[in-house]
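User: Some background: our group keeps a shared notebook of sequences we're curious about, and every so often someone picks one and asks for a predicted structure to add to the entry. Today it's my turn. The entry only has the sequence so far, pasted here. Could you supply the structure so I can complete it?
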Amino acid sequence: MPRAASVCLVGGCPRRTVRSGRCEEHAPPERAWARKSARNLTRDSAWARHVRPRALVRDGFACVLCGARESLEVDHIIPISKGGTWVLENAQTLCTSCHWEKTLRERRQGATGS
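Assistant: Of course. Here's the predicted structure to add to the notebook entry:
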């Protein structure tokens, strides 16, 4: 059974709604997948522009654990979820496989509570 037509939520507007409780004139603009907060956009872009390149240079464009020079990623030494920060001192260069192993170790430690 179809829903009953609704009137626009904007005071005094008698038009029928199209989305979000508002008519076409008062509906907010479409923003597909734009749900990322401004705080995270700032942090992510600062990480990518400032911290990541400096960590790569500091670590000689090599994995700090195995010395690999391909498939490099910059990792948070202390994860943000565990209280880590977005600064250079909390960044290290790892290859993809070392990063994956480190992540698995951290998950196992979190599961055991140690």
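Suggested note for the entry: The radius of gyration is 24 Å. The chain has a mean pLDDT of 82.
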